[in-house]
Amino acid sequence: MKIEIGGNIKHLRKARGMTQEALADALGISFQAVSKWERGDGYPDITILPPLASFFGVTLDALLGQDAEKDAAQAQAILDEACANAADGHIAANIPLLREAVKRFPGDDRLRLQLARSLHALPTDAATAARNTEEAAEIAERILERCTESATRHQAQTLLCYAYADLGLREKAAEQAHALPEVLSCRLMEVDFLEGDAKAQALRKAFISCAEALDWQFYRLYRLDAADERERVRLLQKALTVLETVLDGEYLHLAVNMAERNLWLAQAQLRLGETENALDALERAAKFAAEYDDQPQEYEYQSLLLRGLRFHRDDYGKSCEGKYGDWLRKRLQEPEFRALQGEERFLRVLEV
Questions:
Q1: Alpha carbons 46 and 266: distance in angstroms, whole number
Q2: How many CB atoms lie within 10 A of CB 184?
Q3: For 315, which of 22, 90, 115, 144 is 20 to 30 Å away at the CA?
Q4: Is the overall model pTM greater than 0.90, yes or no?
């Protein structure tokens, strides 16, 4: 059985943010010995293995790497459970699950990242949300200090951007965002070096990525203070047109975007006094909310731009528990919709 102790010691040491010198001092040995172990040029004496395992809070088998495959499978099972919870909007269940997992597998940055994501996404009161966001940012910062795996680093950087922004650290958020790789550009460039089915699949994935990215840009323009109400209506209509063009009726997880954009469109049209147009938009919002709630677990796209891509519901998380239609009906109880309370069409929307 292959012994991986050197790499394990290095991973556990870095997980604690320790230098080789600090670990050597804690064990009463020379830092040259620690360096030799981590390079794979030798192994610790058998008498030092128990205190070394105790120091890191792991078993001897784990320290020796004999449980590596088993641990990897268990960590993946926890990640799968966390993703399933997120897909159902059960974000709160992930916090204790992932806190315990991080203790069991201190070197697994994927678990740490998922914990940070869950903390940042958890719906709660303002004070708790601020504390959770601070913790999520600290976890992401630690991941970036030690992690060399590019996908995990990119996801931690992205999370850190939004966590900084939520904490009011907009300059730090902008600096972190500036350091991010241009992922969409890289994905589009990748297409040039593929052939056959792989090229077609990459192109189709790019269409969804581009549609989501453009939708976000329309949203950001919509939120600008300088935009007047008529401009907001036009921006939302263009965002809906982009999504409709690419998705061609197969909205699935992006049905929630269609519902939200129509809800905002109705709000803007009400402010302009366009009651009938607003009711049209609310009817569409209710339709897409129901479609989002009823999306299948798996699906194969059939439309021109996306044909052959596979959709898996568990790949996409929810920001709230329960049905999105319930969230929409709650929004429709807000004061800005009070003028529609007696409208028959509005009442039908509430029943969807």
A1: 71
A2: 13
A3: 144
A4: no
Other C-beta atoms closer than 10 Å to the C-beta of 218 total 20
Helix (H) or strand (E) holding 150: helix 150-166
Report which of 15, 23, 71, 19 is spatially closest to residue 51, judged by C-alpha positions.
23
**Residue pair 321/90 in contact by the 8 Å Cβ criterion:** yes
**Letter for the amino acid at 314?**
D
Q: Are 176 and 157 in contact (CB under 8 A)?
A: yes
Identity at 26, one-letter amino acid code: A
Q: Are residues 99 and 131 in contact, defined by beta-carbon separation less than 8 angstroms?
A: no
Angle in degrees, 0-180, between the axes of helices 324-331 and 255-271, rounded to the nearest 10: 10
Instruction: Please state, in angstroms and rounded to a whole number, the distance separating the CA atoms of residues 166 and 174.
Output: 12
Six-digit token string for 71: 């641990």
CB 237 within 8 A of CB 265: yes
Q: For tokens 């147009």, name the residue.
A: 277
Q: Are 288 and 310 in contact (CB under 8 A)?
A: no
Rounded Cα gap, residues 269 and 172, in angstroms: 36
The token duo for 283 is 């009817």
Q: What is the DSSP string of 70-110?
A: HHHHHHHHHHHHHHHHHHTT-HHHHHHHHHHHHHH-TT-HH
* Tens-digit pLDDT string for the chain (352 aa): 445 688 888 888 888 888 999 998 988 898 899 999 888 888 888 888 888 888 888 888 777 766 666 778 889 999 999 988 887 888 999 999 999 999 988 888 999 999 999 999 998 999 999 999 999 999 999 999 988 888 899 899 999 999 999 999 999 999 988 888 776 666 677 788 888 999 999 899 999 989 998 998 998 888 886 668 899 999 999 999 999 999 999 999 999 999 999 999 999 999 999 999 999 999 999 999 999 999 999 999 999 999 999 999 888 776 666 788 998 999 999 999 998 988 899 999 988 7
> What distances in angstroms separate CA 347 from CA 180, 329, 342, 350, one per listed residue?
46, 10, 7, 5
Q: Write out the two tokens for 194.
A: 């593929």
Tokens of 235: 């921006």
CB 86 within 8 A of CB 318: yes
The answer to whether 222 and 257 have CB atoms below 8 angstroms apart is no
Give CA–CA dist 238/264, Å, rounded. Answer: 13
